[in-house]
Amino acid sequence: MNAVHAKVHADVLAGRRIDAVVIGASAGGIDALLRILPALPKNFGFSVTVVLHLPDDRDSRLAEVFQQHLAMPVRQADDKMTVQAGRVYFAPPGYHLSVERDFSFSLSQEDPVHFSRPAIDILMESAADAWGQRLLGILLTGASADGAVGMARIAACGGLTVVQDPKDAEIATMPSAAIRLRAPDLVLPVPAIRALMTAMMENQ
């Protein structure tokens, strides 16, 4: 992490309590996530919940694949499962994933949003309502506008919002849509997002 990024991270995290992280990504997202999540230590003290756009008609092996690269436990989120710190959760295919006010997951099969189920917006909006200002939302590369409304809700609830720099994204559509709708707290390339998440450990 360079000195500029270190100062930005220290400033944005100063005095802020983060309990949970939600991440949205679509096309190019697996590569971006594989550059971010493996850097997190086993004792990372926050939950991380990810929606990655997936085909509805096949099982997901994301949890299994990412577990091979991560020190943290990785799970596929399930209905009524309690969100726990120190774990990474992936949304299952074919279901929208929400977080309830009691910090448990809820699955539903409502209509797709931006042609996607799971939809990033649904996770982020519900997580913003659950955690409020204690939430960090991260939006990465993708080819739709999904996530823009969710990031705006996180910001409106006082949470911290980070969008991948469109110039750094494999596909800039998703981060660009979020930036146009509401300016995020930070616009960062993937290495700086990874550094921000590891810097969070110092603020636990």
Automatic annotation (TrEMBL):
Keywords: Chemotaxis, Hydrolase. It holds the Pfam family CheB_methylest. It is an enzyme of class 3 (hydrolase). Its EC number is 3.1.1.61. It catalyses: [protein]-L-glutamate 5-O-methyl ester + H2O = L-glutamyl-[protein] + methanol + H(+). Residues 14-204 form the CheB-type methylesterase domain. The keyword Hydrolase applies. The active site is at S26, H53, D146. Gene3D superfamilies: Methylesterase CheB, C-terminal domain. This is protein-glutamate methylesterase. It comes from Massilia violaceinigra. The lineage of its organism: Bacteria, Pseudomonadati, Pseudomonadota, Betaproteobacteria, Burkholderiales.
